[in-house]
Amino acid sequence: xxxxxxxxxxxxxxxxxxxxxxxxxxxxxxxxxxxxxxxxxxxxxxxxxxxxxxxxxxxxxxxxxxxxxxxxxxxxxxxxxxxxxxxxxxxxxxxxxxxxxxxxxxxxxxxxxxxxxxxxxxxxxxxxxxxxxxxxxxxxxxxxxxxxxxxxxxxxxxxxxxxxxxxxxxxxxxxxxxxxxxxxxxxxxxxxxxxxxxxxxxxxxxxxxxxxxxxxxxxxxxxxxxxxxxxxxxxxxxxxxxxxxxxxxxxxxxxxxxxxxxxxxxxxxxxxxxxxxxxxxxxxxxxxxxxxxxxxxxxxxxxxxxxxxxxxxxxxxxxxxxxxxxxx
Length: 328
Known about the structure:
Belongs to the G-protein coupled receptor 1 family. The chain is mostly helical. The protein has a single domain, classed as Rhopdopsin 7-helix transmembrane proteins. The chain is built from 10 helices and 4 strands.
């Protein structure tokens, strides 16, 4: 990232924005391009290769959808950073960008959390009836979640408009001095409801899940398969939360606090902004890691994935064979 630190301020109390290194644009584009390929293929497998969905497949499909929707905006964000954070696409496009980013990140978090709860209930309370096991209920739940996500996204887009800062049009930037209080408040709402709370729920579910699968009889093939699959899902989900989402929220929280209470600490502000964008790229890696959840967490997806590879390889006759659907 840019190694030049600002030593002055403009208008007395506001730090002058510094351009970020071009590597930000390159890495951001590569990460989301890979995410597009992986999630696009995953959505194709879900919609075209899996004929019977269970409740887990419904949640995984919605997670893939929340990951994929960010991809069309990646070129706009890349141009924005390449042009020294100058938004040239107009007010509506900025509001759309903010809404879609909100839906993407919040959707990824909430569907990951629901997958954690689903896996916990399915393994730990396998002999109990639960709404989360019912496909019809999960479908309705997902529709309600999408309505909530869209509403929140539209609200954020309306609350955080484009502003002109130092001859540049800024969109979703910490340098929008008139929106400092709005960013401060929104950040702590996001930090609690879309980071701390989901992370706490997931850690609880996976700690109980890990304790439960440790007692599974691994002498049977089914017991070994359930244990291996569950442990893999525990590792992947906690890595996604701990690596992709937690650092982004922590750095952003420090940034808005410094911006509000120490706005003239320009060197610190630039370092935090650079760290935030680095964490933003790392957060985008969740789009590439989430397909591992589908592969390790769903026997149906794994079988459909392998059949799809054989079809792509030209052996379509294998597709005519019928394989039984599983529920875990």
